[in-house]
Amino acid sequence: MAYRTTDELLADIGQDLRQLRKQAGLSQALLAQKAGISERALRNLEGGQGSSLATFIGVLKALRQDSVLDALSRPAEPSPMQLLRQRQQLRGGHGQG
């Protein structure tokens, strides 16, 4: 994999987001509204001018592309109800058989 500077990565990501937006048939105004950001923030992001992480995540979610973040985020912890069900299943499983 070739080395890319931060500026090159920002430009590439911006171009990719622009392409995804266009493929989805969304204007910058509509995507910005769906993402809860300003059009200017979206223009900056698409233009590779940098942006906040919150803006980037909002745009990914609005484009339904936030699965790309799965590799970076921690797995969700089970809810207390899920833990209780698991314990009940384990207890029930040991008593039978």
Features:
5 helices, 434 Repressor (Amino-terminal Domain), 0% strand, 97 residues, mainly alpha
Alpha-beta content class? mainly alpha
Q: What is the H level of CATH, i.e. the homologous superfamily? A: lambda repressor-like DNA-binding domains
Shape: elongated
Q: Class in CATH? A: Mainly Alpha
Could you name the ranges where pLDDT drops below 50 across 5 or more consecutive residues? none
Encode the helix/strand succession as letters: HHHHH
**Helicity range:** 55-70%
Number of strands: 0
Distance between the termini: 54 Å
What is the CATH architecture descriptor? Orthogonal Bundle
- The overall pLDDT, averaged over residues, is 88
- How can the largest sheet be summarized? none
Q: Please state roughly what percent of the residues sit in beta strands, choosing from under 5%, 5-15%, 15-25%, 25-35%, 35-45% or over 45%.
A: under 5%
Radius of gyration, whole Å: 20 Å
InterPro entries: Cro/C1-type_HTH, Lambda_DNA-bd_dom_sf
GO molecular function: DNA binding
Region (Disordered): 72-97
Pfam family, one: HTH_31
